[in-house]
Amino acid sequence: MPSAQNLVDKFNDLKTLPHVAIKLTQMVGSETSTMQDFEQVIKLDPVLVVRLLRLVNSPYFGLSSQVESIAKAVVFIGMKHLRSLVAVEALRNLFKEKTDGEVFSRKNLWIHSATVAILGQMITRRIFGQDGEDVFLAGIIHDIGLIVEDQLAGDDLRKVCAEYLVNGHEDSITGIEDSLIGTNHAKVGRLLATEWHLPETVIEAIRFHHRYDKEFPLPSVIGILQLAEFMACKMNYGVVSGRCDPLPAYLNGHVKSKMADYKVLLKALPEEMAKAKELYDAEPEK
Q1: Could you report the per-residue pLDDT of 33-44, keeping only the tens digit for each?
Q2: pTM for this structure?
Q3: Which residues, 6 or more positions from 41, have their beta carbon under 8 angstroms from its beta carbon?
Q4: Long-range contacts of the stretch 47-56 (C-beta < 8 A, 24+)
Q5: What domains can you pick out in the chain, each with its CATH number?
Q6: C-alpha dihedral sign at 72, 76, 79, 81
Q7: What's the mean pLDDT in 158-186?
């Protein structure tokens, strides 16, 4: 059976994150990068330029005058928002496929990831009063390991999903993956995110997002990601339709203590999903 590293190595031979995205992600984490540096790199990707300018000139930012400079656009949206935009743009094509499957489809996985990202950012901002950009990035990319498995062990992945649908109450999806594939998407995703130089908080969130036997103090990225994934699954935006892992006891207690706030948050979700569809073309509706 292949190891997580074997799959990542083979995947990188087939598809890799565009070099522009990797470079920008590294620059966001560097204190020495200038606006001119960002402009020079972004100009190498015409599609990213269009999406960046579209984003900064959208009603979301509500600017009084049109922004046509890449450097000014970067200043307005901020470094972390730029990083999220770059990640979404770079990952979009990886989630596409020619046909949908019955138990697993990349389209549903993209919708799930977008929903988790938006919910996670909403929870961070509305419940904990923090920014939430790292949570958004973690949400978008937390299941990237499933794309790798689909590419290189697609038949086995579908067996995993089928067994999880029937026997998921007895084992986690990662446990079934370990048995049938020899590794799991959390391990694969962590390695891929490390090679892509993503933030350590995001890497750790990918690694532990299915670890329900540990407590991750809120508002940690991992804890919020688990909350968002549970809510997305409950709304039928799960990776495997009809399956939803139970919420760990400590997170369940938190939600109960803030139930009124979470009800308000969920009422606002459709509007936030519509914004994301406009800004990121995230296809949140089935």
Answers
A1: 888 888 888 888
A2: 0.83
A3: 20, 23, 24, 27
A4: 47/89, 48/20, 48/85, 48/86, 48/89, 51/85, 51/89, 52/77, 52/82, 52/85, 55/85, 55/279
A5: 4-280 (1.10.3210.10)
A6: negative
A7: 89
